Amino acid sequence: MKRITVFSVVAAGTLAGFCANCCAGGACEAAAPNTLSAAEKAAGWQLLWDGKTLDGWVGERNGCKAPPEKGWKIEKGVLTVLPRKGIKDGKWVDIPKEQAALGGGGDLVTAKDFRDFELSVDFLLTEAANSGIKYFYNKDQFKGTCEEYQILHEAHPDSTKGRDGKCRRVASLYDMIPANAEPYVKPLGQWNTAKIVSKGNHVEHWLNGTKVLEYERGSAEFRAIVAQSKYAKEEKPGEHWGEAPTGRIKLQDHSDSTVSFRNIKIREL
Question: Fold for domain 16-268?
Answer without folding.
Answer: Jelly Rolls (2.60.120)
